[in-house]
Amino acid sequence: MAVLVLGAIAVVAAIFVTGALAVATDDKGGARHGADAAALAGAQAVLDGIPEAVTPGFLTPTEIPVLLGGGRCLLVGYPEASRLASANGDSLAPSDYCYNSFTDEVSVTVHGDGGARAEATAATSFDAGACSVDPGFTPPTKAPGDDDSGDDSDDNPLPPERTLLDCGIDNLVVTYNPVDSRFHFVGLDLVLADVKPRLTR
Question: Is 180 exposed, middle or buried (0-12, 13-18, 19+ CB in 10 A)?
Fold first, then answer.
């Protein structure tokens, strides 16, 4: 009889442990899903804001990450990421969100029910820190003697010239304006409209 009682207790205990593990696994899986969704939402928000952020133009491609905030742990995209986390039943604190404009990384840590915690990192695919101008491009300059007006005014400035930029996305069109020596993107909003963020880990 004692053996039967002990056996029953063992079965009940096994069922309880199995159930607890299943709940913990579900919580962790839910938090992981929430982290992925939050990271992608943050990256999408960053991506959507890039065309406006780079409107001032840049002297060299190294200025592009600065135009996007110039930081290694920015809150750009946090509101959108937080809303997605909440929609999945998780929480995302500002201190658990980072957008690095130099490495194109959006990192999040979400907290779910039951103490579950999960991390995720996403990229916009527009790698501002890696942008480079077509190596075959040479900025236009006027040769000596081209301006014989006899004064320092420039009534006939050189026209802007087009070239290409690689920012992890190939063949982005930019114009170079000799007047202010700045590059400006052309149609970047249309190009980025077809780009989707991706999870990197």
Answer: exposed
Once rounded to an integer, what is the mean pLDDT over residues 5-29? 43
Q: How many domains does the chain have?
A: 1
Q: Tell me, yes or no, whether 151 lies in a domain.
A: no
Full residue range of the structural domain in which residue 50 is found: 2-137+157-199
Q: At what angle do helices 78-87 and 2-53 cross, to 10 degrees?
A: 150
Helix (H, G, I), strand (E, B) or coil at 152: coil
Classify 130 as helix, strand or coil: helix
The pLDDT score that the predictor gives to residue 137 is: 96
Distance CA 125, CA 57 (A): 20
157-201 pLDDT tens trace: 899 999 999 999 989 999 999 999 999 999 999 999 999 999 998
